[in-house]
Amino acid sequence: MRAAASDTRVVNLAGGLPSDAQFPRQALAAAFVRVVSHDGGRALQYGWAEGAERLRGFVAKRLRARGAAVDADDVIVTAGAQQGIAIALELTTRTGRRDRVGVGDESYPAALDLMRARGLAPVAPLTGVRVRYVMPAIDNPRGRAMADAVRRTLIATRPAIIEDDAYADLAFDGPAPRPLLADAPDRVLHVGTLSKTLCPGLRIGWLVVPRPLRSRALRLKQSADLQASSLGQAVAETYLLGEGRTPPVDFDARLVRLRRFYRRRAAMLGRALRAALPGWRFTPPAGGFAFWVEAPADAPRVDELAWLRAALEAGVMFDPGSSFRPDGAAGSAAARLCFSSAPVEAFAVGVRRFARAWRRCVTRGDA
Length: 367
Fold this sequence. Notes:
The chain has helices at residues 2-5, 25-43, 53-65, 80-92, 109-117, 148-156, 180-183, 214-225, 230-241, 251-276, 304-314, 347-364; strands spanning 11-12, 75-79, 100-102, 121-123, 131-134, 160-164, 188-193, 204-208, 290-294, 316-317, 319-320, 334-338. It is of the alpha/beta class. The two termini are 21 Å apart.
C-alpha cells in the first residue's frame, strides 16, 4: 500500500488524508518567514511542556464558544491528536492489567493499535469498561454524530471518557457541536487537533484533562518529548492570531469553506457508490472524510488480504474493515472509502475498480 500511494495510476481512496489543495501554503509560508525572521529566538528555542500560551488561549477560546469552561491553563499542546490520546490512555488505564477500553463497533485504527500496543483490550461495549474512547461530534469511519441517547448515557455513567474531537469542525451542517467536555469536565479527557482543518505536517494537537490530572499529564508530556515543536506552534500561532504585519486568519470562514468543499466531495463519491455498488449498504456521512461501505448482507465472505491485493492490482486503494474493528477480525466485508484527497474526476473510476476487485475475489472464491 505504501508503494501504491506514490503511484499516480492508483486511485487512493484510503488513508483519510486532508486535501492538499486546502492547505493555506502562502499564508503558512508568510507566517514561517515572520516567526524565523522576527521571533527566531522563541520559535527556534526550547519551550515549556504545556505549549505556547497564545496558541493554548486560541484553543480555550474556541472550546468556551462551544460551552466548555476552559482557559489557557487547562490546555496542553501535543504532537498531534495521537499523542493526546496516548497521554489520556496513560492517565486512565493501569499498566499490565489489560484494562478494557470501550470503543464501539468500529473506531479509529491508530487508537486501536495504540491500545493493543499498551496491553489494553479495546472492546465494542461502552459499558463494563475502564474507560471509553469515543468521537461524539463526527466519528471515524462512519462520519456520523453520536446519538443523543448514547451521549446522555455516557455523561450519566461514571467511567472516564476520552473524547476525540478531530472531525468536530468538519460536520457538514457545522459549526462544531457542544463537546462532552462541557457536560462532564470531571471525567472527560478531551483531545483535539489542527491536522484536519489546517494541515497535519505542523503536528499540532491538544489535550484538556480534569484539573486533578493536569500535573501528571504534564509530566507524561515532558517525559515523552519535552514539548511539541516550538517552530510548528509559532507558525500556527502566527497564522491563526496574527503578528506584526501578518494579519490573523478568519478561521471560522475557513471552516465554512472546508465544510462546503468536503460536503461536495462526499456527494460526488456517494453518486459513484450508488452507480457501481448496487445492493451495498452505506449511509451518507454527516461530516469528516469518508464513507463506510458494507457488502450486501447475503454476500459471500472473501479473504480481506486477497481483496486488498486485487484492488491494488486493479489500481485502487481502500481501507479494509478489520482495521477499524476492536477485535481486528475481518467479519462481513466492509471498507472505508475516502473522498477527502483523491481527485474528484477519479471517483467513478476508483469505485468501479473497487467493485471489480470485489467481484474478482467472489468469483475466485477467495474465502
